[in-house]
Amino acid sequence: MHCGKPLPEGSRRDRAYCDNKCRGLGSYYRRKAGVPPRPRWQHPALTSDNPVLRSAAAHARQLGEANGWSPSLARCAMDGLTVVLGECPPGKPVKLTEVRVRIPRHASSLRVAEVLTDLELLEDDSVLAVRSWIENRTAELPAGFASDVRAWLLVLLNGDSRAKPRSHTCVYVYFGGVRPLLENWATTRGHLREITVTDVTAVLSPLRGWQRRNAIAALRSLFRFAKKRGLIFANPTARLKTEDIQRNLLPMTDAEVLAVQRVAVTPAQRLIVALAAVHAARATAIRRLTLDDLDLSNRRITIAGHAQRLGELPHQTLLVWLAQRRVTWPKTPNRHVLINAKTALGTGLSVPNTSNGICCTRASTSNASAATVSCTKH
User: Fold this and answer.
1) Which of 87 and 319 is assigned the larger pLDDT?
2) DSSP-based three-state secondary structure for 191
């Protein structure tokens, strides 16, 4: 040892750890004696006898270099690949549920699945969360209504030969509007075919506003599906019409303005509020906004396919956010304007942060700059 540091008393180590000075002296004497440097450590998967594992590990390293993965993240991805491909026959795809169950806790199933997807070695056998939700919620309904409502929700989700699939939000809203009505009918009725026009009018009479409008839309969809499938003899909602609801714009009070200032504390949150308030941008349009939609030199922005002049407030908040984005994720391949720690490693859309997110409700007018925004913390 070059430092001559004595061993601590009672220590179980057979030598003391050297500092950087001792490490440098050791490298100097090795070069002086002609001893070649020790080879750098590399993951065992890169030199594995399994050609599939070896190619997957090499692809993970290339993907990490292209997407700005940290060395530890790339190493953990190779650990997960070693577990799922170590005993897998060559050419056989790996199931996604197996990836989520078998990989070590420190490995990221999302990154392992991304590597396997690029190599066409992943079989997605997972069940959508909305499907599990449909099964669990319809199982709580009365027996005479459960099977028909389940079939209706699945058609809304997947679509059929004459109808396009609906969004998950539509499925949730429709079932939320229909469920209390079905539970009310279950006390005197046992099947959808027993529901009459009088029953529909009775359950809708206490509802007002958007609650009544959503309930009517859900009931019309349900009974239209039941009539098409031959589950009922007559559609009790055939002549049911929805009422137009007057949309009123209410100015924000001083307390609401102060609440927005307290909630929107990060540059990303301030940018969301600015885009919604000045440009009347919807949440989906803000999430899908890419760097190609920005023309900062000419003060132009394209939102949902519509080019418009960039306002002063969005311009300033956009510059602050882009500066932070450039410093935080300098090598990210994601072209979306709003990204986070997870989506910066890929190219997908960012998701709302439910722990400290902002929910903005926009009411637009003929003048986009006069839009009002109401923001509340989740």
Assistant:
1) 319
2) coil
